[in-house]
Design goal:
Number of strands: 10
Low-confidence stretches: 1-10, 168-172
Distance between the termini: 95 Å
Helix content: 40-55%
Largest sheet: 5 strands, parallel
Shape: elongated
Radius of gyration: 36 Å
Length: 359
């Protein structure tokens, strides 16, 4: 007697629930006993109609259907259960005494996961059920992982794409995920070609981007670039593009695989942080840090060019009295006005910096 095939994976149910459907009561009894002895919890049904009534109130781990039954046969039962909510991916094993290709094709067309020729070698049947359960669990985990990845990409405003060298006469070899299409303001089922994408880049920026694309194509190198785009609704966004080359079995360049990400908010935050680090928030003038950096650069340039430069320091006398008597609000207004007047009276080549104003 063959030893039963028992799975070793801990994630399989301890006692998998099986709906066994067969109009032959003797075969139904023998199969039920054999599967129960091998660790399965069996619920029996003697017709397709009874099976459908059972499935409206109960969700098994796997369904075993006899193909040939009076009334609602196994093929039609499988078709109907596939339309029940939550049963789209349920493993269904079709039992048949027929080994012709037509019956096998009908089983798969009806939505069966696999088929099995009726036999008294119960260990083989139990093993096939364990494999179906294991494959179903793996598929569910992959679908969950895919859903989590899609959600993470959506939150990060990121999507993936795949571009292949187009055949002669082919319009586009670009395939984009639904998340990538959403980055560019399109729906998940819309088609978007490379030329249409390039037309979304402003004309003065397009040439530089196309030069980078041509260099990456010519050298089969990694592409990493930021590009401004204008969406169909007129909004301006900044898209980060990263792509790596793919090669065929002959080592020839086959295309690129990569990601696109909307980095507009990040770039705006970076620009704001950079501005706050170098400019005074009140007056908008370059701050003390910029004063020191620009003064050092001017000194280096003066030494190199053998000329001089001038630095004028302006102090506001009795500024503390204004703060103490009129309040800091009045002092802030004075600083803003002084900065405005200084900028208005200097040449375009001159620089006014907040480092010359003491608060």
């Amino acid at each position: 007697m063959n030893a039963p095939l028992i799975p070793t994976e801990d994630d399989l149910p301890a006692q998998p629930k099986v709906l066994l459907v067969d109009d032959d009561e003797v075969n139904l009894l023998l199969t039920s006993i054999a599967l129960r002895e091998r660790g399965f919890h069996i619920t029996e049904a003697t017709s397709g109609e009874q099976a459908m009534r059972t499935l409206t109130e109960w969700l098994p781990d796997v369904v075993v259907l006899d193909a040939l039954m009076p009334g609602l046969d196994g093929f039609e039962t499988c078709r109907q259960l596939r339309h029940l909510p939550g049963f789209e991916s349920l493993p269904v094993l079709m039992l048949t005494g027929l080994d012709d290709d037509e019956s096998i094709t009908r089983a798969y067309q009806a939505g069966a996961t696999d088929f099995f020729v009726k036999t008294t070698q119960w260990s083989l049947l139990a093993g096939r059920l364990h494999y179906l359960l294991r494959a179903s669990r793996t598929r569910l985990e992959l679908e969950r992982s895919k859903a989590k990845l899609a959600r993470a990409q959506d939150l990060a405003r990121m999507g993936s794409f795949d571009w292949r060298h187009g055949e002669r006469g082919e319009r586009s070899g670009l395939l984009m995920s639904s998340e990538a299409l959403r980055v560019f303001g399109f729906g998940p089922h819309e088609r978007l070609g490379l030329r249409a994408l390039l037309r979304m880049v402003p004309h003065d920026e397009r040439r530089a981007l196309m030069r980078q694309l041509h260099d990456a194509l010519r050298g089969s190198t990694v592409l990493a670039s930021d590009a401004p785009i204008v969406l169909l609704d007129g909004r301006q966004r900044i898209i980060h593009i990263e792509a790596e080359p793919d090669f065929d079995e002959h080592g020839q360049s086959a295309g690129f695989t990569g990601i696109v990400q909307d980095v507009t908010d990040r770039r705006q935050a970076e620009d704001k942080i950079r501005h706050l680090a170098n400019f005074d928030a009140l007056t908008g003038l370059p701050n003390r840090r910029q004063l020191l950096w620009r003064a050092e650069r001017a000194l280096e340039q003066a030494r190199r060019m053998s000329h001089q430069f001038a630095l004028l320091l302006i102090d506001l006398d009795r500024f503390k009295i204004i703060n103490d008597t009129l309040g800091h609000g009045a002092g802030d207004e004075l600083l803003v006005e002084v900065g405005r007047r200084l900028r208005a009276c200097v040449r375009h080549s001159d620089q006014v910096m907040e480092g010359a104003i003491e608060s």
